[in-house]
Specification:
The complex is a heterodimer of chains A (285) and B (278).
Chain A (H helix, E strand, L loop, with lengths): L1 H39 L12 H8 L1 H33 L5 H13 L2 H12 L4 H9 L13 H25 L3 H9 L4 H29 L3 H6 L6 H10 L6 H31 L1
Helix pairs in contact in A: 1-12, 2-12, 3-7, 3-9, 4-7, 7-9, 8-9, 9-12, 11-12
Chain B lengths: L1 H12 L1 H28 E2 L10 E2 L2 H9 L2 H32 L5 H8 L7 H15 L5 H25 L3 H9 L4 H30 L2 H6 L7 H11 L2 H25 L2 H5 L6
Antiparallel strand pairs in B: 1-2
Helix pairs in contact in B: 2-12, 3-12, 4-7, 4-9, 7-9, 8-9, 9-12, 11-12
Classes of the chains: A mainly alpha (285), B mainly alpha (278).
Chain lengths: 285, 278
């Protein structure tokens, strides 16, 4: 009898302590999300009735497919380029060359400074009068006229990588530092060249870390809002399109925006589930 | 393949030089944008193909302070971040303790549920938060904007504290109870001091997150609760790049402080962690 009460009491205390976290989840995420979903089925400007017109309207537009494709293209390009940048970078940092602390700190800069400030700096640096174009025109003399980078697709990808590569780099670096050097020594003693050690020993071992980091980069890039809002120009990924429904139209089209937000959230969830499943397979075998 | 191998061998020979060139390029790629902002905010008549502005001035900072009302905006930002950090920490200490130290059925499910706000684009639930807050008259109040920030800050804080509580050494706690301390006494005199570094790093994360938060602020702010990121966005729209640059320089000072703190106190992987072993 006493043990029953004791168990009961134990469970009760655990639940009580969990409550604040669960309350904040339900109050600040679940309920708002529910409101968004319900609102997406309401006729425009009304609080009653049900309709599918916002979904039909949004998914029926020819431009919708382009917007979704653009969002996915930016997120995937940013993720892949972040991996390409992070692997050599972290391999170098791991060797603890002089000054490696400074470069380590550099990785963290893009995720600690406000995204808007970063975006402003990038616009100045890559602008037609920015230092990059000055270097190309006056320093290297490879081009005559300024190269247009701002407000182009290439520029947007560069900006995305600048903002979101940190997640991949930090995770990869911490995995790499946790790697037991004995594996590599064993491979080297067995006569493997440095390239072979990298290709067949180090890379497979740090793969889970790289992929976990790339998921974070992907999520951040898919949901990116402030960066494309001020640096995107005519390229508007989903998040910006949703905001435009509220900012541009008077009265704001909350219902249409909600429908688009639901589509975006579903796309992200489906893609993430798919991504994680694909990621798990090679590590399981 | 063969050329690639030759290239890599050459790279290994000239390893050090190439390594530093790569690292230096990386360093410049990340930091030059800030140098550009700094120069823009200090320069006058910087047009045409010039590397440096012809004249230097502090006028844009004066403009930033008077026209864009920096002291007021900074006060808003700090009040909001303070409330958000307070609420998130108060939520995260009990919840993190329960998740880190108690046997709970379905712990994994609870943990990933709490982390769900990080997997859904913020704009999706920001729409709902804005609509609820309009009904509750929380729009354009410091408390309202701060509560909206908690939606994003609390999962971070819970994640960091759960892993901190989980990492506590069982033997220390046992020693305390052997010495006759009751549960509450153990918690306040042994557990809490031990997890202080975790709480500190959680505070640093939540502060940075709230300080930089843009999406949720944009959906819930009003004339009385303009924060620095929103002000910067508005200034970009107004098109005065020099003033915007001056504003940005002020905006990044706390971030640099946080960066310094992170380097000293926190393992950076915790900043992005939570999906280990995906």
């Amino acid at each position: 009898m006493t043990s029953f009460f004791k168990r009961r009491r134990y469970g009760l205390i655990s639940l009580l302590m969990l409550l604040p976290g669960l309350a904040s989840f339900f109050g600040l995420f679940f309920y708002p999300m529910l409101v968004t979903v319900v609102r997406s089925f309401r006729p425009e400007g009304l609080t009653e009735g049900w309709t599918l017109e916002h979904y039909a309207g949004f998914l029926g537009q020819a431009s919708t497919r382009q917007v979704i494709l653009l969002t996915f293209f930016l997120a995937i390009a940013c993720t892949l380029l972040s991996i390409v940048l992070s692997v050599p970078l972290t391999l170098l940092l791991r060797q603890k060359l002089a000054g490696h602390r400074l470069f380590r700190l550099t990785i963290l800069i893009p995720i600690t400074v406000p995204g808007l400030v970063g975006a402003l700096g990038l616009l100045l640096f890559y602008g037609s009068r920015g230092w990059l174009n000055l270097l190309l025109i006056q320093g290297l003399r490879v081009v005559q006229d300024p190269v247009k980078i701002n407000y182009t697709l290439t520029g947007l990808v560069i900006f995305y990588v600048w903002h979101y590569f940190s997640y991949t780099a930090v995770t990869t670096l911490s995995t790499l530092e946790g790697l037991d050097p004995a594996f590599e020594e064993a491979a080297r003693v067995a006569g493997a060249s440095p390239w072979q050690v990298l290709r067949h020993v180090v890379l497979p071992l740090i793969m889970p870390g790289i992929l976990a980091g790339s998921v974070l980069t992907f999520m951040a890039a898919f949901g990116a809002f402030s960066i494309p809002l001020i640096t995107g120009g005519s390229y508007r990924p989903l998040a910006v399109q949703i905001y435009k429904q509220i900012e541009v139209y008077t009265p704001a089209r909350w219902e249409a925006a909600s429908a688009m937000a639901v589509v975006m959230a579903l796309l992200q969830l489906v893609f993430l589930t798919f991504y994680m499943r694909v990621l798990r397979r090679p590590s399981a075998s | 393949m063969k050329t690639l191998r030759q290239y890599l061998r050459a790279l290994l020979n000239a390893k050090r030089l190439l390594a530093y060139t790569f690292l230096l390029c990386f360093f410049l790629w990340v930091t030059t944008p800030f140098l550009m902002i700094l120069l823009k905010s200090l320069g006058r008549n910087w047009f045409g193909k010039l590397w440096l502005p012809p004249e230097f001035t502090l006028d844009w900072y004066k403009w930033a302070v008077t026209v864009t009302n920096i002291p007021e905006v900074l006060r808003n930002t700090l009040i909001i971040a303070g409330i958000a950090v307070g609420i998130s920490t108060l939520i995260a200490i009990p919840t993190g303790w329960a998740l880190g130290r108690r046997k709970i059925p379905g712990k994994e499910v609870i943990m990933s549920t709490i982390l769900l706000p990080r997997m859904i684009p913020p704009i999706a639930y920001a729409l709902g938060v804005a609509q609820i807050f309009y009904r509750l008259h929380l729009i354009d109040t410091h408390l309202g904007v701060a509560i909206a920030h908690v939606a994003i800050c609390a999962p971070y804080a819970i994640l960091v504290l759960a892993s901190t509580f989980e990492g506590l050494d069982e033997r220390v706690l046992e020693a305390a109870s052997v010495c006759g301390a009751n549960n509450l006494r153990t918690f306040f005199h042994v557990t809490l001091p031990l997890v202080m570094p975790g709480i500190l790093s959680s505070i640093i994360f939540t502060f940075t997150t709230s300080y930089n938060e843009f999406t949720l602020t944009l959906m819930t702010y009003g004339p009385k609760t303009i924060t620095l990121p929103v002000r910067t966005y508005l200034a970009v729209g107004e098109g005065y790049w020099e003033v915007t640059s001056a504003l940005s320089m002020i905006l990044i000072i706390p971030s640099l402080f946080v960066l310094f703190m992170i380097q000293r106190q926190v393992q950076p992987e915790k900043l992005v962690g939570g999906f280990k072993g995906v």
